[in-house]
Amino acid sequence: MPQENYSMESVSHENRKFNPHPDFAAQAHIGSAADYRQMYERSIADPEAFWAEAAEELDWFKKWDSVLDESEAPFFKWFSGATTNLCHNCVDRHLAGPNRNKAALIWEGEPGDTRVLTYQDVYREVGKFANGLKQIGIKKGDRVAIYLPMVPELVLAVLACARIGAVHTVIFAGFSADSIRDRVNDCGAKCVITADGGWRRGRVLSLKNTVDEALKGAESVTDVVIVKRAHGDPFPCHFKEGRDHWYHRLVQDQPIECPCEEMEAEDMLFLLYTSGTTGKPKGIIHTTAGYMLYTYLTMKYIFDLKPEDVYWCTADVGWITGHSYIVYGPMQNAATQIIYEGAPNEPDEGRFWEIVEKYRATIFYTAPTAIRAFMKWGDQWPEQHDLSSLRLLGTVGEPINPEAWMWYHRVIGAERCPIVDTWWQTETGGHMLTPVPGATATKPGCATVPFFGIEPAILDDDGAEVDAGILAIKQPWPGILRGIYGDPQRFKDTYWCKWGGKYYFPGDGARRDEDGYIWILGRVDDVVNVSGHRIGTAELESVFVEHKDVAESAVVGVPHEIKGQGLIAFVTVIQGRAHDDKLRTELVEMVDKSIGKFARPERILFSSDLPKTRSGKIMRRLLRDIAEGKELGNTTTLADPGVVEQLQRQYEES
Ligand code: WTA
Question: How far apart are CA 198 and CA 226, in angstroms?
Answer without folding.
Answer: 12
